[in-house]
Amino acid sequence: MKRLVVITVGKTHSGKTTFARALEKELSHSLVIDQDNHAEFINTYYKNLLPIQGSNTLKHEISRLIIQYGKNHTNLQFIICNANRSRKDRRYLLEELFNQNQFIRILVHFDIPDKVLQNRVTQSRRSTNIFRGATSFEEVLIRQQAESLKEDVSNPIEGEANRLFVIKDNKEVEAVINHREFTIKVKMGTPVVIVFREQL
Hints:
Layout: E1 3-10, H1 16-26, E2 30-34, H2 35-45, H3 57-73, E3 77-81, H4 87-97, E4 103-110, H5 114-123, H6 137-147, E5 163-167, H7 171-178, E6 182-187, E7 190-196
Parallel strand pairs: 1-3, 1-4, 2-3, 4-5
Antiparallel strand pairs: 6-7
Helix pairs in contact: 2-3, 5-6
């Protein structure tokens, strides 16, 4: 029986973490994997191991190890809570880590206007201990806005996964959770019923 993986897509402060934690409470036998937690762990205890330049490969390796362990030793459903704005990164998740033979893959794209995000980051009280190079969430948002011009950074499209949900207003997050746009029932740790309901 296939398991479920829900993968968030969106910029900083778009509501990915709030959605993931709320979904975890509703989705039986599930686990949120949030790379911000891994980044904070590394910055707190293993900062000297961080690469000086380029991608944070240590963070990615920790995330991959946790996912592989969860796949091999549990029957958990996965909620992957990262930006995932690169087509290449999503392809790796969807084809390598969560291939369609083993998982039903759902993308949840937080397409929140930049003006809303700007207001949020200026008022943010979130810990900045997740940063390696940036000094504030405003800086992160500015970088993400610039990255939107890159060819590989794009919004997810229909057909990229088994299902795509697009959230343009965070009021829709509550609707997705409360109305259970996707429901999975678990019996003895094994998914037995999956029901997809109409998209918002």
